[in-house]
Amino acid sequence: MDWERTLVILEEIHTKDKVTQRQLSKLTGLSLGTINGLIQEMITIGLLSATYQNARMVKYEVTKAGQIEKSKLNYEFTIKSFKQLAKIRKQFKEKIDKAIHRGITKFYIMGNHDEMLKLTKMCIIEAKRQSDINYDIIGEDIKTIENGEAYLIWENCHEKTLKDRQMDYVNLLQEN
User: Are 96 and 119 in contact (CB under 8 A)?
Assistant: First the structure.
């Protein structure tokens, strides 16, 4: 059984008093048939129980075994997430350091205001402590930049525009 799907289903059933298979399908992007199969498997192995309210309504509950499994999956997810985050953070820092070594002293952080922006800002602040650099967070606005300046991006949608305008940039998520 897919641990991510299992975790999402357990979390949703645990936090909501009543949740339908259709709601779980919309939430996860999985087909109704796939949700039905996963729920049946989870009932069979004892992670969920089902109580029929009427002919059309079933109330699902997370069992004690399901709560233990949910805790285990949350732990594993957290460990995997932190390892991935550490890997990406190291990659960002290496790319920023390479840009600094080639003479970049001003960075324009360009992209959605999301967790990737927060991670990028954290890495650039760390680099700023060791090097004489500056940065601005500019969102989606492209402006003309000077020598010694570069954009920091993580979304591929910006790359073509920057390349077409012959702007210096570093795609933080792109493999070398």
Answer: no
The CA-atom distances, in angstroms, between 20 and each of 25, 31, 36, 39 are 9, 13, 10, 11
Cα–Cα distances in Å, from 126 out to 43, 97, 149, 155, 160? 49, 10, 18, 22, 28
State the sign of the Cα–Cα–Cα–Cα dihedral 165, 168, 174, 176. positive
Q: Does residue 175 contact residue 132 with C-beta atoms inside 8 Å? A: no
pTM above 0.85, yes or no: no
Asked if 26 and 51 touch (Cβ cutoff 8 Å), the reply is: no
Strand 149-153, strand 134-139: pairing: unpaired
Q: Which two tokens stand for residue 163?
A: 């390349």
Q: Which domains does the chain have, with CATH numbers?
A: 3-62 (1.10.10.10), 87-171 (3.40.50.2300)
To the nearest 10 degrees (0 to 180), the angle between helices 32-44 and 21-28 is: 110
Which SS3 state, helix, strand or coil, does residue 146 take?
coil
pLDDT tens per residue, range 133-162? 999 999 777 877 888 999 999 988 888 889
Range 21-32 average pLDDT: 91
Give CA–CA dist 8/24, Å, rounded.
9
Please count the other Cβ atoms lying within 10 Å of the Cβ belonging to residue 47: 24
